[in-house]
Amino acid sequence: MFPRGNTSSPDRCPISLGEAQELWLGPGPRGSLFDSREALVSAWQRARGYVMRLWGRGGKRPMAWWQFEAPDLGLKWPGYDRQQSYLFAAGVLEEKERAELELQWRRDFEHARSIEDPVARKRYLDWADVPISLRQEWRAERRRRRRGAPPAEAAAVAE
Known about the structure:
mainly alpha
């Protein structure tokens, strides 16, 4: 999975594995493997596709993405545990990635219904990083169903 060498192959890492790891996680405790910002930028340009394919998924992005691309989108690092909901709210996730996350968040939301303590339920949803907007939408949807009203999508189609 981590072969290095032929940079024309999308499966090959065009930089050292340590450098790729730094693009993913940021510098290690001993500091950066790159001797200059220019070297770091060059490594990102050469290995972006490889690094993004491995670590730019599931609603999360490598640290190099946050450093070099997020600012152009007006985004700032929200912390590791809030990346998914932050990128979701910013509308920068690919459609497939967004759909997969929504499916998982829906499962988390439904699981949270079994938690009786409202504080514990909120903590669980926060831990799962379920976006507030989806929580509100799904709660409203549940209220409509309890009242016998059609879901919002069905109501829109009926109009």
